[in-house]
Amino acid sequence: MTDILYLISxxxxxxxxxxxxxxxxxxxGNIYGIVGIVLACLGAYTSSCNxxxxxxxxxxxxSIGIFISKRISxxxxxxxxxxxxxLVGLSALLIDSAAYFSPELFGIVNNNGDIYISSLIxxxxxxxxxxxxxxxxxxxxLKLKGVYKGQTINLVFNSFIGLIVILFLITFTxxxxxxxxYGLIIFSLLLGMTLIIPIGGADMPVVVSMLNSYSGWxxxxxxxxxxxxxxxxTGALVGASGAILSYIMCKSMNRSLIDVIFSYSQIVSDNKxxxxxxxxSYKKGAPEDAAFLLKNxxxxxxxxxxxxxxxxxxxxxxxxxxxxKKEGVSVKYAIHPVAGRMPxxxxxxxxxxNVPYDDVCELDEINNSxxxxxxxxxxxxxxxxxxxxxxxxxxxxxxxxxxxxxKAKTVLVLKRSMGVGYAGLDNELFYAHNTMMLLxxxxxxxxxxxxxx
Amino acid sequence: MAIFFQNLWxxxxxxxxxISANNLHSITVxxxxxxxxxxxxxxxxxxxxxxxxxxxxxxxxxxxxxxLFALSNDGLSISKVFGFLAVLFSSINIFGGFAVTNRMxxxxxxxx
Lengths: 453, 112
What we know:
By secondary structure, chain A is α/β, with parallel strands linked by helices. In chain A, 59% of the residues lie in helices and 7% in strands. Chain A has 3 domains: 1-71, no CATH class; 73-264, no CATH class; 275-452, TPP-binding domain (Rossmann fold, 3-Layer(aba) Sandwich), CATH 3.40.50.1220.
């Protein structure tokens, strides 16, 4: 019976992911996911006796989870996801520790009471992956929240920690000694931190997807330890999903995963380009000028970035779009894959503001339309529009596909200040003859534009 | 020389016993599941990548099963404490993950 429930549950999880292939089926996909989890727990219950503690833990954890999900704003989504990933890592770590201390509960001991070597390998790997996911996600969480900026870490130091983890892993599998068990935990926790600390802010979407992937592999690891197919399947699904997202993010930045993980020099090089920009002139506009331009345009493309998220400008943006549409202006939204701090972040924010699904276009779909559009409205996006990615081979973002907003007749750039973007680069676009800068809070500027319309 | 290879071969056979039939079965399932995941996830539209992350986060918390197993024995042990905490943390994830996904998907759906 248990196995049948697990099988159905695994199928439900596959449908949960498949549902996300279109917005119409996505909600039913989520229901499949919930059914899958419930069936899995039912399957586990039939083979256990004591219900009290599990119920307490589930009720307690469930209410905390629901509470968090209600309180969180869509802007904070990336840090919430990172926080949740750390919990998967921590749980995996706890379960593997439980398996080490009470192997008989999991049926992984031979007649002499020793843990099988294959199980020791699985426990060791599970602990390493779980611990790295745990501390790595915490660092990512702090970085996304803006509490912690990160610093450079020597590559040699990091490889050294990695080597120690591998050594502990080997000695632990051979000896099953508790000393090595603790050593493995401590150094894996450390490795999780040192891996994520030096990664630059612009690479955060990759990091979040990568940790998503790790949390999946951690679940698979537990599945190997418990000889449980459901956990193996689910972990593999999640692991593959995170890996694909990381790949897509990397490709959208024209970087390799290795490059992102080991880009230790990035934070240091950030400050190089900043000095020489003060003498360049740019055109500064008022909201009234922008309103005039927008009103007289026949097509407008809006390019949102993380700045829109931080100033919560999506609602006023949608309002502005509606007014323009009433005036007969065509309004579209162009979303770069790495805009924001996690995959699909901008889409969620626009959906929150009720922007029609069909008006939101991906990079490839819309990039040719900039040449024929009258106004490109860049709101809080910077690096994804930087022409240096096309023109300047020395730039750190050279080769990254960008939204070619410069081809529009007029470019309106809403920005807090003339400061550099997350990648720490100056943007030639701001000094172009057809660009008008609207400095200030993106939401307030947009509201001022709405007033003048 | 021949004796060396003979010994090496024997050692390898000795090691291969460590990989039980169960393990081979697990590896098979794992690899096939990776393929399923690969093909299913490529079909997900980019617009829904954020819900994809939160839903995968929720379902990866099926590791709650591990915690439930650890809780299933009688008496008090350190493993039981670990199990309790694992169930607690995974539940935060499961409930939080599905609820947030649901919230997001509602936003995507209402302008139809």
